[in-house]
Amino acid sequence: MQISWIQKTTLLDYPDKVATIIFTLWCNFRCHYCHNFEFVLPEKAKKFLNDLISENAFFNFLEQRKEFLDGVVISGWEPTLQKDLYEFVKKIKDMWFLVKIDTNGRDPALIRKMIDEKLIDYVAMDIKNPIEKYDKIVNADFDKNNILETISILLEGKIDYEFRTTIVKWVHSEQDIEDMAHLIEWASKYFLQNYENKNILNDFFKWERFSPEELRLLKKVAEKHVEKCNIRS
Question: Do residues 7 and 21 lie in contact, with contact meaning Cβ atoms separated by under 8 Å?
Answer without folding.
Answer: yes
